[in-house]
Structure to design on (489 residues):
């Protein structure tokens, strides 16, 4: 067993979703993100080919666009584009949803549209690239390239960034340190951090989706509904907290001195779902949808936790949110496995006996270290050295499970960590054999997020440039430098 490490603890909000530590012990640079949209630039790295603009419309009905958007939510832009073209929003597709407070460059496809019909839209530069035989989907996004400025960093930012880079370079398996030059000099290095799921996966102000998903996996839809519709957070407005308090009372959860004192629903509540609907503001539309179903059926709060009526209420939300609940549960367990691996001092850049590795994506853009989790290999004692060399060259990656029904856990100490985390959560792989959209076979995910980092300085403020594969989080890297809570990031 590897020696356990003394590590800097993460922010309490991060710890709640399984992110227990920082890799680097360097002091943070502070600062703020997204002071303006130009401070956060994202460019998609696509894996999608287009034919020429004069390609046959019958075989290639999709118009392929590249749009650079300033201060646009992706969904809102798609709606504005479809309205301007006079077509259904369902005819506009894209590969990855981006945050609003940013400048983003990404592809869209529009079924049946013509390049000459493209509108002018405020805050958008739109270029017609060609035509395609199918619409874009999430699988067409290989990754994202980022340029992120941190405003109002501390005066010692260059020195602190250099200190953090040394730690992250070693973590990535590259022992060479950046230069010790004084002043605002550029820093270029290959760095690595644990490939945590960022706070956005769980809700930044009210991290609850993973708790709902864990309740679903335990076949307790009553508690899943209660956690989502009730269960107030201190960061919420007063009217929202009051509404959630009322829902908790209907389920049978008493008010404690703080949120930590709240227990699970015991079925002894008043079941006054009509009063709950009166209290829940319209902005909480999914919560209202769940409670409406309880009211329509007059569900007794003492009904068995796995009663069909609770499942019916839970399924009031859209199918993508149903899947997100389970995905968030899997993600929180994955984060906990990585934190325990970090605490025990096991390497992330190379395997130990019992690990399961995946190999690199053959067609990934040159900028990316991109794992292909469809190609897996279990590492025994005879293969450790060979596979370690593959990992060193970026050809293989150590993985941990996003647990589902088809998950095969690791062996040795990695398998011990996986089993301990699942046992502590009261979860087994078979528990993800669930109804409808909640069912999940599971997969695996690389434990190390490695990237080529370039840091420059503008007026004392650092600008971080790097690329990440699809599904990884820029904030997971930046938190190592800022050492600030997720609400700031």
């Amino acid at each position: 067993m590897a020696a356990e490490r003394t590590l800097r603890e993460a922010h309490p909000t991060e710890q709640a979703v399984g992110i227990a530590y920082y890799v680097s012990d360097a002091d943070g640079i502070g600062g703020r993100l997204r002071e303006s949209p130009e401070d956060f630039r994202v460019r998609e790295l696509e894996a999608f080919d287009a034919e020429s603009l004069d390609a046959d419309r019958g075989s290639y009905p999709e118009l392929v666009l590249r749009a650079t958007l300033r201060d646009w939510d992706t969904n809102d832009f798609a709606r504005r584009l479809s309205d301007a073209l006079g077509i259904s929003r369902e005819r506009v597709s894209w590969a990855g949803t981006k945050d609003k407070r940013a400048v983003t460059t990404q592809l869209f496809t529009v079924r049946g549209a013509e390049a000459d019909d493209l509108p002018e839209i405020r805050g958008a530069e739109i270029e017609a690239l060609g035509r395609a035989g199918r619409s874009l989907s999430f699988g067409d996004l290989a990754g994202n390239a980022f340029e992120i400025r941190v405003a109002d960093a501390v005066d010692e930012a260059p020195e602190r960034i250099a200190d953090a880079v040394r730690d992250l370079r070693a973590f990535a398996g590259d022992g060479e340190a950046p230069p010790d030059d004084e002043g605002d000099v550029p820093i270029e290095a290959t760095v690595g951090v644990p490939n945590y799921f960022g706070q956005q996966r769980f809700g930044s102000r009210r991290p609850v989706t993973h708790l709902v998903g864990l309740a679903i996996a335990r076949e307790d839809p009553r508690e899943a509904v209660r956690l989502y519709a009730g269960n107030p957070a201190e960061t919420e407005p007063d009217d929202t907290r009051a509404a959630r308090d009322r829902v908790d009372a209907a389920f049978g959860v008493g008010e404690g001195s703080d949120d930590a004192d709240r227990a699970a629903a015991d079925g002894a509540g008043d079941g006054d779902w009509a009063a709950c609907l009166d209290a829940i503001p319209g902005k909480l539309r999914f919560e209202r949808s769940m409670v409406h179903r309880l009211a329509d059926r007059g569900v007794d709060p003492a009904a068995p936790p796995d009663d069909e009526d609770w499942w019916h209420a839970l399924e009031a939300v859209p199918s993508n949110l149903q899947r997100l609940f389970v995905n968030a549960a899997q993600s929180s367990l994955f984060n906990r496995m990585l934190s325990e691996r970090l605490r025990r001092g096991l390497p992330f850049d190379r395997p130990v006996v019992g690990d399961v590795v995946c190999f690199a994506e053959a067609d990934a853009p040159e900028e990316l270290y991109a794992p292909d989790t469809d190609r897996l290999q279990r590492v025994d004692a005879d293969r450790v050295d060979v596979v370690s060399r593959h990992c060193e060259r970026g050809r293989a990656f150590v993985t941990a499970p996003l647990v589902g029904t088809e998950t095969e856990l690791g062996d040795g100490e990695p398998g011990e960590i996986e089993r301990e985390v699942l046992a502590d959560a009261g979860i087994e792989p078979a528990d993800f054999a669930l109804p409808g959209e909640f069912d999940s076979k599971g997969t695996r995910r690389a434990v190390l997020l490695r990237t080529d980092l370039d840091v420059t300085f503008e007026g004392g403020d650092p600008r971080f440039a790097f690329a990440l594969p699809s599904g990884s989080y820029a904030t997971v890297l930046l938190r190592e430098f800022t050492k600030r809570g997720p609400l700031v990031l």
Notes: The chain is about 30% helix and 20% strand. The mean pLDDT is 93.
